[in-house]
Amino acid sequence: MTLGRTVGSGPPALYTREILAGLVTAVADRLGDRVADAVGRCMSDTLARTITRHPDGTAFVITGDIPAMWLRDSTAQLAPFLHLAAADERLADTIAAVSRRQQSSILHDAYANAFNDGPTGAGHRDRTGQSDGWQSAWVWERKYEIDSLAYPVQLAYDLWCATGRTDHLGQFGQVARTVVELWRAEQRHHEGSPYTFERTDCPPSDTLVRAGRGPEVAFTGMTWAGFRPSDDACRYGYNVPGNALAAVALGYLGRIAAEVLHDDVLADDAATLRSDLERGIREHGVVPGPAGHPVYAYEVDGRGGVFLGDDANSPSLLSLPMLGWCAPDDPLYTATRDLILSDANPYYYSGTAASGIGSPHTPAGHVWPIALAIQGLTTTDPDECHRLLDLILATDAGTGAVHESFHVDDPATYTREWFSWANAMFCELALQAAGLRTYHRPVSAPTAERAAR
């Protein structure tokens, strides 16, 4: 089977500079120089400082001030560039190189969330459920999160849809089977999953209870996760937005399997698992809210445990329309949105400088610009989108960078000087406000039918 163009060796340029300059000019024309300067600075920084191309046709992407590649973050960091990929072959080559690296990482260790650029042994050295008891020297961290597998599927699919190229899909069939088999196995984590995780001398959020197996769960049809997208341990085992993203990603996986790989068995397996996850969310992840109206829970355990709220990190309940799970005006989503953007969400903070969703991963009272950007990207009100764009610009503490979080009363108090995911989400919001998000992810049939209802 031939899968598109091959990639030559050597370190080619990451992109054509004129293409980014043209985008910045278009943003300036529509939103003014201040927004355009920030967009240009953030996107240039991602290309110049976070991505390393290798002669083997792959590319490694650091998350910013941590020299490791998170599968989730590296996908999100490239989101603004998908709008330019069809017009810039060099940029498309770079995205393809990142996708190849993500896929090879999954084949190396499908339970890991972050990797080193080689077998350096850097990062956290934790006890795991592997045969030798210790994680690979290639792995920075082995916290199992559903989105660590879903986001690379999304990136591979997005590049195919945006450009029509398939040269990054050479290993995709093997990767896809690995993902489907792992998610299927973790539907019954409590019955014998091989995954455990234990870290000593750390906060409770950095390890799993019960000898690394996590809190008790019962079967729901959803797939289990040890950790949230924040890298904090799940309170309950079934993270609902993570399962929603997995269901959507299985739709993408199935399309590639059927239309590119011509593997109907894989496509059918993906469709069956997707149906399981959607039914699990419908039957266990939708619960009565404080006002009695149905809402999505953030986490459940199938045993009666329910957490109502949301975390700033995506996949989140706030991000469900952005993920392709539902329409932004879906009644169940809007009821959930009202809850999580209020004091009913324990991670929602209000202050004199800002109000928004934070995370237990950062100090109390800190709002995440990522969540503010997602709020703007999922609103049906253009004024809210522009207001949130201005708010992120106004709370950078004069640094010209978008931080991980900042205090709602004092934006000069912030976490992480350099966080490329936050920069990327600001750019996505700016492009949305300017009407320049030209690539819009297709919604596959089951999700579209649900949204219509």
Write structural notes for this entry.
This protein has 453 residues and is mainly α. It has one domain (17-452): Glycosyltransferase (Alpha/alpha barrel), CATH 1.50.10. Helices cover 44% and strands 10% of the residues. The protein is built from 16 helices and 17 strands. It has helices spanning 17-31, 33-50, 71-77, 82-85, 89-108, 147-163, 172-185, 209-212, 240-259, 264-285, 320-323, 331-340, 369-377, 382-394, 420-434, 445-452; strands at residues 51-53, 59-61, 69-70, 114-115, 127-128, 139-141, 197-198, 238-239, 286-288, 294-296, 299-300, 306-307, 348-350, 355-357, 366-367, 405-407, 410-415. The strands form seven sheets. The chain has a three-stranded antiparallel beta sheet with strand order 3-4-6. Strands 8-11-12 form a three-stranded antiparallel beta sheet. α3 runs parallel beside α6 (147-163), α3 packs parallel to α15 (420-434) and α14 (382-394) runs antiparallel to α15. Mean pLDDT is 93; it is low at 1-11. GO terms for molecular function: hydrolase activity. This is Glycoside hydrolase family 125 protein. InterPro entries: 6-hairpin_glycosidase_sf, 6hp_glycosidase-like_sf, GH125. Keywords: Hydrolase.
Q: Number of domains in the coordinates?
A: 1
**Number of H- or I-type helical stretches:** 16
The pLDDT mean sits at: 93
Note the main sheet. 3 strands, antiparallel
Q: Portion of residues in helices?
A: 40-55%
Query: How many β-strand stretches?
Result: 17
Report strand order across the widest sheet: 3-4-6
**Overall body shape:** globular
